[in-house]
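tool=predict chain=A
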Amino acid sequence: MSSSTPASNSTAWTTEASAATAPVASVSPWRRTWLRFKAQRLGYWSLILFTGLFVISLLGEVLANDRPLLVRYDGHYYFPIVKEYPETLFGGDFPAKTNYLDPYIRDRLSAGSNFAIYPPNHFHYDTIDYFATQPFPAPPSSTNWLGTDQFGRDVLSRLLYGFRLSVLMAMALTVSGVLVGVLTGAIQGFYGGRTDLIGQRLIEIWASMPDLYLLIIFASIFEPTLWLLFILLSMFGWLVLSDYVRAEFLRNRSLDYVKAARTMGLSNWQIMWRHILPNSLTPVITFLPFRMSAAILSLTSLDFLGLGVPPPTPSLGELLQEGKNNLDAWWISISAFAALVITLLLLTFMGDALRNALDTRSKGSAFGGGK
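tool=predict ok
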């Protein structure tokens, strides 16, 4: 029977403690940030849910479409999801493109050994079901899970495609805002002096303009397109980030590592982008979810006012407008409002968690903590 001495117990405890803390000490800064973000449970699961919804929306043509994914007819296979076929190919009378909602075509595709594999939702965002048995707008049913709008279009399909458009537009606006904001803020903060003074006065003048009124004026003058909306919304989306980056560069430009880089003969642009910017990324990263929220809200507002994307392009704002025009069709307003609120909440939770993860002084940033 063996006994352990206090010294041996202390040595064993020290070894175990060192082994437990060694992996944490060897973790890279980005890995530590990810672990802190993951500890923010609300933000982490919001990221998972938002990513899942976005991936589902990217599969919109496969999940919600009025054309079958695969058709077997008279021993031949066809793929209507990627190619249009004339109605005469399936026994119809006219050479026009096939309407797969036509009961006659459905009967032909299900006769004998023929078959057709349809998406879970049988309606595209612009599909009008001329064979519907209920007047429009129709309430939710087994055919239209979230009902139809005043034109007979499926609300669920328009939500799916509208969510995808909103997120993609928000991502594009966020990227453009980051590029312009980082560039202007870095130049002002690094050079300072007269460059900073002139730049700040110009930005203050630009920021004082009523951006919403300018967007409404331009959108009412020109025919609305996605490119026009992108340009208009990009004009003001970089101002907030520019101020943050400017402050970071003003603070970091006088630190020792910048002075060392100067003595090594590095150019100003090398110092800015290779040394100062990587140490000033915290406001840039935390800016992303909130910028996406603002972009989605701006696009929704313009669409609600009828100055956004041209019809029949689906959008959350257009659905809210239809709900306002058809107050009896409660399913339109509730569906669109719920989708908008959930989207903005998920992005807000992600932004808060990301900010806490990058701020090592916050209580929720510990590995085992979180909200």
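The first strand starts at residue 70 and ends at 73. The chain has two domains: 66-118, 156-365.
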